[in-house]
Amino acid sequence: MSSFLAWVTHGVKRGRLELGARTTVALSAVVAALTLITAIYLVLVSRTAAQGRTIERLQAEVLHLQRENEQAAVRIAETCAIPQVMARAQALGFAPADRIEFLAGSD
Amino acid sequence: MADGPKRRLMLLATLLGLCVLVVIAQLVKVQIIDHQFYVNWARDQRVRSITMDQPPRGTIHDRDGYLLAGNGVRYAIEAAPPYVTDKANAAEKLAEVLHVPALQMRTLLETKDEHGQPATWVAIAPSVSRDIGEEVAKQEIGGVAVHPLWKREYPEGTLASHVLGFSTPVTGYYGIEGFYDTMLRPEPIKWEGPVDIASEPIPWEPIFGEFPRRGVRLELTLDRTVQMLTEQELEHAIWEYEADGGTIIVMDPKTFGILAMASWLPYDPERYGELVEQNPPPFEDPAVSKQYEPGSVFKVLTVAAALDSGTVAPSTAYNDQGWIEVGGQAIWNATREVYGQQSVTGIMVHSLNVGAAWLSTLMGPEIFYSYLQEFGIGRPTGVDLASEVSGQLWLPEDIEHWHPSNLGTNAFGQGVAVTPLQMVTAVATVVNDGARLRPHVVGRRIASTGKVSVFQPVFEQQVISPETAQQVTEMMVQVVEEGATLAQVAGYRVGGKTGTAQIPVPGGYAREGTIATFIGFGPVPDPEVLILVKLDRPQASPWASKTAAPSFARLAARLFVVLGIPPDGESVLAEVQQ
């Protein structure tokens, strides 16, 4: 490869790369700007990702609480079910009323 | 030689130019020509559509808000064997929590697929209790996942089982669960976005938008206390009168809202998986899905039609000879007795088949069947319960089935089939001043957004005038006072009508066994409940007046107390004087 390059460049005069002060300043400014933009972008993305995780966690918590709530509602209903209430009432010595009398109230 | 370097450079530039052209051509192909293909390819690798956690199915409550159908939490335990690094340890831990042999767990974790490779996924336990699920999750076994599941639960057990129906994890069947399945079903929400290698969402951007929506909450017109008393009375009546089965419906005659509906035999909706093996399964609600010949309770409709059409007045007299010929067929009174001079009221009080057939022939088929159709006979009531059937009413134009004698037999409920709900709706029309509304079970719907929809009674038709309705209800009160006296309720004026129907079999009617029905309402003059009691093949007595009527009285007496309806002063006074 080096002999090929030597063959191609044989007799070709090399040029010199010269950067002026203004060009150097401009290039540096561009590099600095790009670095700044990249940094801002990375910060934003990482913050957004963190917020996304937080929201995901909160959503999972909401769903977990919803499940707990549903389960609790069923358990309460089971405890208050008529057969349960009747059994507890009987255990406490209550009996079904066999004759109920309405009393007339005055206005 | 001076051109030598230039030529060489030109050659090199040409070669480089060609290479650049190839690259540009490839870029054009990739970026422009095949652009969409690569976009889709990248998207498929990076983005997944994931269904977010399934919200619960809508709950069902009685009219006071008591939960009748809710959602319990269960857990499914699954494993991805390639990710379970220490299978022996994992099997030990699972076995300890699940109370199964460790060897069984080990075998599951070493399951191979059809190619002899470790299976990518195995179900360890498809549905375990919350405690066990959470215990497994605590173990943090690598490669073992614990997913929460919803399980439909019915906290009141078998109460109102036929009205509620049942639900699998996905679909509701029968009753309310079947009729309102699409509303009760939760609305899953799919999230689409970038995922990681384990297909877990990467929160590249916060997931905005709505949460998955749970199903609609339904509040019924059913009252769980009334329902329980109704079921207790049905069981009592079946036991006391040695019946094969039966149905009781309690309706509010002002709104046609159903307060209770019980059929024998109730079942546990949570055990649908086992019950489906029965032949036939017990899921169909006989109150709306099974039809029967109603017998003499149908005379209420015949008399109402005859009075409203102006064919007769309550005092119009006829001479009962014990039989009448209609369409070449002799029709006899159920007791085979001759009642002599009778009024229309007498037809109701003594439940005279001959009188009813006389009324229908006086009206003629056009008027008679027109009224029956307006009462809703022969068509579904439109109640919000699954699997309602339409009953059977043959009309004169059904030349293959209708015979002129049907005009006579239909008048006392023979040769016509209805569901218990159709019958109770037709009589409720009479009690409700002749206005037929649509019977319903759901009183309110509450969407997950909080929007409340209150059911407004649907007016179907003004079938008879309020005056006629008043005359017929008075006749029904007389029926209880003079005929079906076992239906009387101490302290309250009630009305009603008995019906003892033969059971049709191929080629005629069964020699033994009847269907005993009583439809009653009270307290008069402002009825708050209408009750149908239907008993299948009661052995203690074939007559409704001795089976269904006293059952009505027992239930009505309890319901008046539970619903806070004070006794009628005059009735109490009369009772005291007696």
Architecture overview:
The complex is a heterodimer of chains A (107) and B (578). Chain A is built from three helices and no strands. Chain A has 107 residues and is an all-alpha fold. Chain A has a domain at 20-91. The mean pLDDT of chain A is 86. In chain B, the strands form seven sheets. In chain B, strands 2, 3, 4, 5, 9, 17 and 18 form a seven-stranded mixed beta sheet that branches. Chain B has a five-stranded antiparallel beta sheet with strand order 11-10-22-21-20, with helices on both faces. Chain B starts with a helix and ends with a helix. Chain A binds chain B through residues 7-12, 45, 48-49, 51-53, 55-56, 59, 62-63, 66-68, 70-71, 73-74, 76-78, 80-83, 97, 100, 102, and chain B through 1, 4-5, 8-9, 11-12, 52-53, 55-56, 59, 66-67, 70-73, 130, 148, 150, 153, 155-157, 159, 201-207, 211, 224-225, 228, 561, 566-567.
